[in-house]
Amino acid sequence: MNVVFSGSFDPITSGHMDVLTRASRMFDHVTVTVMHNARKQGRHLFTLEERLAILVEATAHLPNVSVDTFGGLLVDYMAQQGKGIIIRGLRAVSDYEYELQIAHLNRQIGEVETIFIMAATRWSFVSSSMVREIASYGGDVSEMVPKASAKALREKFAAEYAERAARQAAEATGSPA
Questions:
Q1: Which of 131, 135, 138, 146 could crosslink 58 through cysteines, CB 3.0-4.6 Å?
Q2: Nearest 5 degrees, angle CA 32-CA 150-CA 164?
Q3: Are 114 and 74 in contact (CB under 8 A)?
Q4: pLDDT (tens digit, 9 = 90+) per residue, 128-161?
């Protein structure tokens, strides 16, 4: 059985990877689909191409996972690909309320099913937006994201990471920053 795990993945987190890895054990093939929303143009930290590259690197160890992109309704992508099951990860009850509405809509307009996989408890607090915020201040997010995401975040926020490292070095030596 082939399934689709869709999202913006800006960037992919360890919670996403937990859900994806577990889905890859349950299903024959998982397509990770980066959804491109033209109305959100310019609101992502990473470009579509950067997100695809991060995902390809982060999923390279999963032989039955592929990466794709689509702009438009997920149900249209599902119909084009001949797939009928969407995988969604849940972190908390608040995720479930939103995802339940989307699952019902997708079922009604596209006759696709949604299977929810709970993220491991250790990732229940991790979101892409929180990771981006921490990284924007040069904070260490290496435990919250796969290596490919951590590398891309360090490159994107190189100045902030350098500034934070300089501050920490100054504090360690007792000299002014």
A1: 146
A2: 150
A3: no
A4: 999 999 999 999 999 999 999 999 999 999 989 8
Angle at 103 (CA atoms; ends 107, 47), nearest 5 degrees:
115
- Binding-site residues for ATP, in ranges, read 8-9, 16, 89-91, 99, 123-129
What residues form the annotated binding site?
8-9, 16, 40, 74, 88-91, 99, 123-129
Which pTM value belongs to this model?
A: 0.90
Here the CATH number for the domain that contains residue 81 is 3.40.50.620
Count the residues in the chain: 177
Residue 130 covered by a domain: no
> So which residues are the catalytic ones?
16, 40, 91, 128
Which residue matches tokens 């009928």? 84
